[in-house]
Specification:
The complex is a heterodimer of chains A (307) and B (127).
Chain A: E1 5-15, H1 18-28, E2 32-36, E3 42-45, E4 55-59, E5 64-72, H2 75-88, E6 93-95, E7 106-110, E8 116-120, E9 150-158, H3 161-170, E10 175-181, E11 187-193, E12 201-205, E13 211-218, H4 222-234, E14 239-245, E15 252-257, E16 263-268, E17 280-283, H5 287-291, H6 300-304
Parallel strand pairs in A: 1-4, 5-8, 9-12, 10-17, 13-16
Antiparallel strand pairs in A: 1-5, 2-3, 3-4, 6-7, 7-8, 9-13, 10-11, 11-12, 14-15, 15-16
Chain B: E1 17-22, E2 27-32, H1 37-44, E3 62-67, E4 70-72, H2 82-86, E5 89-91, E6 95-97, E7 101-105
Parallel strand pairs in B: 1-7
Antiparallel strand pairs in B: 1-2, 3-5, 3-7, 4-6
The chains are: A alpha/beta (307), B alpha+beta (127).
Organism (chain B): Marinobacter lipolyticus SM19
Keywords (chain B): FAD, Flavoprotein
Protein name (chain B): Ferredoxin
Chain lengths: 307, 127
């Protein structure tokens, strides 16, 4: 049952060098640079996004994900979910409005896979970049690089998939859209949706907690994904795999790394999901095809290169 | 008749070439002074070091430098501590050779937990 969680709101990513990271996320991926805050964190967004920012880069001595946040419908929902998280057994941290510039108060909790998640209800709305809300043109003409449209989802690696699913389903109203299951019935991968998208956050089973696999950004067409591949080669950016298609979600994709080794995806397509849909199940021995539909096998790096 | 050389502009700092010997793999490859050890290995076709993110983040290409001089770029402290770095335990994707090198690869896949900087002290949700 949906509980008022709307969509992924932002992800804070640790990078080794903020200038190199900015060249990557702004000039190559085409995110819009919004602001640098008093802590030196840089805020960016995809050009179609209405809220002020969706990506926060923080310079640190180890890359990875600090936290991923979801936006909820309103403050009443935020209070309701805060109570339910505490009742469920979560240690909920309150973060005051303005700690992220332009964002209202946030609540933070750690999922059983070890990842930090946040909920918030309010963020300054600066509108879609370059075209606004009134008689908008099709797209702004000064976009750079891959012209990424929006921050779409994260894929995270961790140990307790069942615990995280239970929390996300029962308290936050996410549904399981697709899953990979081994012969003993253990879930090895789970793709969770709180919207009509094929995934808003996904998890793959891994012995360590709190590992970051990738942050993903939406492109409009397969031609855009191919063009992203061209740009990756032109800039000698570290590639993981692609362009190719996923079996899971049917999205078309390419994976590459930012200059600190955090993996990024740009993709297009993907199935539509409604809450009455039964989960789509892949057998573990079809994992290769489920992830990379054309190669039909996983590259070692996809499973082991994490931050 | 004079012999004219190919008129490339003079490179202010000509590239130097060094030999990298991977002792525990019985393999070697050549690296130039402007490329990382890992990039040189990939370019040579050798398969002596694991390739991950190539950007100092994932720790897959950890090596032990046994002999030789090098410069290094910033690498994840989750995989290379200051102590490691001082002992020559480094990431091949962040190392630039400044002499011939002797290294070991791959035996360093120790299972120690990554020490990612803690973001907060929250306990995981328990029911």
């Amino acid at each position: 049952m949906r509980k008022g969680v709307m969509r992924p709101g932002h992800v804070q990513i640790r990078v080794l060098d903020i200038e190199e990271a900015l060249e990557h996320y702004r000039d190559l991926m085409g995110l819009i640079e919004v602001e640098t805050d008093s802590q030196g964190r840089v805020y960016l967004k995809g050009w179609t996004e209405v809220d002020k920012f969706s990506v926060v880069l923080r310079e640190a001595d180890a890359p990875g994900m600090d936290f991923m946040a979801f936006k909820v419908l309103n403050n009443q929902i935020l209070e309701q979910l805060e109570g339910e998280l505490i009742e469920y057994g979560c240690d909920v941290e309150k973060i005051p409005a303005g700690e992220l510039s332009g964002c209202g108060r946030r609540i933070r909790f750690v999922a059983p896979t070890g990842h930090s998640f946040e909920l918030f209800a309010e963020k300054e709305q600066t509108g879609r970049y370059g075209i606004g809300n009134h008689n908008p043109e099709a797209w702004p003409r000064d976009l750079k690089g891959m012209k990424a449209q929006r921050f779409d989802h994260c894929l995270l690696y961790g140990d307790d998939l069942d615990g995280t699913y239970k929390l996300f389903h029962e308290v936050l109203g996410f549904d399981i859209c697709e899953q990979v299951v081994d012969p003993d019935g253990n879930r090895l991968a789970q793709f969770l949706s709180v919207s009509m998208k094929a995934h808003d956050v996904a998890f793959i089973k891994h012995p360590e907690k709190n590992k970051f696999h990738h942050a993903s950004f939406f492109l409009e067409t397969w031609e855009d994904v191919l063009r992203a591949g061209d740009l990756i080669s032109m800039t000698d950016t570290s590639i993981d795999i692609g362009p190719t298609r996923h079996g899971i979600t049917h999205g078309q994709t390419i994976y590459f790394f930012d200059p600190s080794g955090n993996r990024n995806e740009v993709f297009c397509g993907g199935d539509a999901f409604y809450p009455d849909h039964a989960p789509i199940t892949w057998d573990a021995d079809k994992l290769g095809k489920a992830i990379f539909y054309h190669d039909r096998q996983l590259n070692e790096r996809f499973l082991t290169a994490l931050t | 008749m004079s012999i004219t050389k190919n008129s490339q502009p003079a490179d202010p700092a000509p590239l130097k070439r060094f030999r990298v010997w991977v002792a525990n793999r019985q393999q070697s490859f050549t690296v130039t002074s402007d490329q990382s050890l890992l990039a040189a290995m990939e370019q040579s076709g050798a398969q002596a070091i694991d390739v991950g993110c190539r950007c100092g983040g994932c720790g897959r290409c950890r090596i032990q430098v046994l002999h030789g001089q090098y410069e290094s770029k910033r690498m994840s402290r989750a995989h290379v501590s200051e102590h490691d770095e001082a002992q020559g335990l480094v990431l091949a994707c962040r190392i630039l050779a400044r002499s011939d090198l002797v290294i070991e690869s791959d035996q360093f896949q120790d299972p120690r937990q990554a020490t990612v900087e803690p973001n907060n002290n929250n306990e995981e949700c328990k029911q």
